[in-house]
User: What shape does this take?
Amino acid sequence: MKILHVESGKHLYGGARQVLYITEGLAAQGVDNLLACPLGSEMARQQPAGTRVLAMKMGGDADIGLAFRLARLIRAEKPDLVHLHSRRGADTWGGLAAKLAGVPCVLSRRVDNPESRLVVALKYRLYDHVITISEGIRQVLLDEGLPAGKVTCVRSAVDPAPFLPEVDPEAFRAEFRLPRDALVAGVVAQMIPRKGHRYLFAALPELVERYPELHVLVFGQGPLQAELRADVTARRLDGNVHFAGFRHDLAHWIGGLDMLVHPAEMEGLGVSLLQAAAAGVPVITSRAGGLPEAVLDGVTGILCPPGDVAALAEAVERLAGDADLRRRYGEAGRARILAEFSIDGMVEGNRRIYEHVLENHR
Assistant: This one.
């Protein structure tokens, strides 16, 4: 079996990391993998094991030429199937390229952004099957008219190994220049509107009054960085909110958090939540998209209504004041990740879809 994977993201965020897991897992099973990705991207530098990387120009949704470049690539390489892993033009132009080349095509959908029924009816004709990373996303597509037989949920996975070692609390606080008695909440997300940073910042002033030892580490980067920094300054939170940037060594440190807060308005599943849970960190997040599949309310963390600042503040305060509850949620989260979110299971789920599509195509 020969698969051409297409990933148009330039950074190694959660979705791109899933592509690494899939390609390396399939390669271990003897599948011949090709990976088309942008020139200069982090994915091109990673060179996943057992995968031939084909770096090329990918200009996003407006880059109609991508359809023809991918079609030429498909005709030259003759894969059995094309797997499109991202948006940014790869979904539409990649689907069109596969149609032009006469090769079956599978799309992974990682976001729960709504689309009109007309868009779904037209766009999704390009794909032989759609794989969603959560049941929440699958339900969105079903509600928008996609036939049930054309869409399957295969949840994202996490490699727990890097997140299992204990983190030295003193080394953690020294690394991020935090007081020794700091109670540390973390945010791990791109700085874009739907991730909801502003809701946590709105809740913080009263929380810091009650818990002056509460500090927030903000990991990530994105277009809202300057705006979010200004918001923190305007709320006089500079002493309690620390922007840590994008860290390639996050797996080494995330277990040092006392809690992870992810107040997103929309989310496909939330890989950073799975990673935090693997590290034994309790999670506070929103009851939106696939997030209730990543966090079990009252078992591995707390779910809040999206955009509800008061409920978010109450959840943070509940964990801040109860170390035993933080420990119980963290232990339950780690056990659930080990049992339900394995890479092997995710790889096998994707492979079953390939085989189903290829059988129907024949």
User: Anything to note?
Assistant: The longest strand covers residues 32-38. The two ends are 14 Å apart (CA to CA). Residues 343-361 form the longest helix (19 residues). The chain is about 45% helix and 15% strand.
